[in-house]
Write a structure and sequence with these properties.
The chain is of the alpha+beta class and about 650 residues long. About 30% of the residues lie in helices and about 20% in strands. It contains 14 helices and 21 strands. Strand 13 and strand 14 form a beta hairpin.
Length: about 650
Amino acid sequence: MASRPHRTPLTLSRRSMLAAAAGTAGLGLLGVRASVASAAAPALAPLATVPLLPAGAPVRSQFTPDEQVYAGFLAILAPMANAMDDSDTASRGFLGGGWWRDPNNASNARVQEHVATLSWFYANSKPWNPYYLNSALLNRLDAAIGHYLALQQSDGSFPEYSSTEHSLSATSFGLGYLAKTLRNLTRANALPARRDQIKSALTRGMDWLLNPGLGSWGNGAQTAWANQISGGLAGSATALWLNDDATRRNALNNRLSYFASHGQSSAGFYYEFDGQDVGYNFEVMMPEMAEIYIRTQNGSILGMAQRWADWYGYIALHEPDGSGMVNYTAASSRTEIRYHDNVMPEPDKAGFGAQLAKSVPKLAAFYTSSEDRAAARAAWAAAGGPAPALGKGAPTQPREADQRFMGDYWPSQAAKNAAIASLPYLSSTEWAEVRRDNLVPVAKKQQYLFVRRPKYYFGAFYGTRPTVVSGGVSSGPGFLWHPSAGIVVHGGRGDATYTWSSIASAGSDALTSLDASYLIGTGAWGGEHRSPGTDSVVVHQSRSDGSVPTTLTLSRDAVIRAVSAGGSATEQIPLVLLPSDTVRFANGTTVPYNGNSSASTNGLTIKRGSTTITITWSATASASVTTTGTTFFKDARRRLHMLRIPHGGTLTTTIAFS
């Protein structure tokens, strides 16, 4: 994602702000936008530092298996707290040091979300936690909360990229982190005045977020940025669990009902902004949805989770060797999360979403099993040396530690195996379907084509591309998977570099919206789920101006792509190769794994175990295979290699399986 410009931080003096806060503590109005007390406050001294851990800590053996997630946070707690700005200025309490969120400046409320982490360690007595009721930590936490609350806008929202912004992200996730901070402070019976301020801030934040007039709700169209909305709903649910309020409880229930019908596409995905995104759907939204359900028991959440599990079952591709799931990320609108390992490392970004698998069994296919998690934790405990610290940035995301107090759940291996077996491309070997979105208000709707033939499983995207975010969705073919060989072709997103596409004078057809019509055999097909039998599934695609017409024929054992580019062009196919593959051009030239090769020829073969994949093209060409730095899974054995075939304007490529 493109970097954001640095914004100007707040400039009001800290002592003036605190003077105002003292007069408005019960209301939670901290004085940034209220009248400032006329009397000068005494100068604020630097804060005592939080002691560092002794040598050899965190000690692995002191953590129970379900507590191991806290070890990495414990290792950075003192450095993070001590990096706080403790000057007598408006920045006092700012959690500097770059531990979490960019831009790391004093006007970004998201930087302050680690108040939840600091408060957890202050409030919870554990044999391995030396910061329980630590006074230096409490004083720094107090300052951090003060700075956080001072950033709240008069309408209840919080800023992120500028001090005057009304950020959905900062407000929504802030509700959750402030609610959890309130829970921790209440548990420790600490900072009563701050607790009153937090309650007021939560009330005002909920009023902003739960207002049906907020533009992010979509005004009857799709609810944009569903992951952020879900974070705010989860935070509201937790705030109301701590301090129930009938008016806001009704508002939350109203928005949950609306969200169920407007935050999720008819295709099954959650909207980011007006398209699907694996990373935000699975790693951010599902954990927040689990928290909402735990706090509210609202049945609409389970319905949404069921529909999403159905959708993810189409685009999460189970590797037959058990490495994990390869994701169809060419159609992701914001991020490129190419895979999820079978055993996800802890902290596990997506892990808390497994709570929903208790009620939605299909979800078990996508999470680490309880047996694998237990084995990984045993290995962690047995490893030598102290537990490693988390790195700065994304690894310190507060969510993992903050949600774990609600329970630690992983599906059994038997439940996971059953859910994997029920995936549509594994439970049946002959079907085709187009899943469509019907809520985004565009003339040509999004169309996700999935075709399972006995020898392969194929996916593609057609229709109007979602709003471009960080390069955006790749149109046309996106993946090709084999039941024994696993992933064979995996298209990228964002730019043309790693797309499965034709690159002509007007650029890559993957970076445009593509019109498409569908047939089964010679008859028009509306995209309903059906078995093609012995017939081919045929797609006629072109750019919206009719250029680069392409016919895609999906027979029972081959994918055939016939392109008419109208001039010189290059057909490129992103191949996923393993070190054990034997790859040769048709003229005998060897293609090395993680190397480059070229030949003037008309074909290439890949031998993977008992499977042979043959790629041929209709005219001899100076073809090349180029390695890339893109790999899959923690073992990094699967590596993307780009096959490129230049041609004069027309070319037919065939990918066939033995």
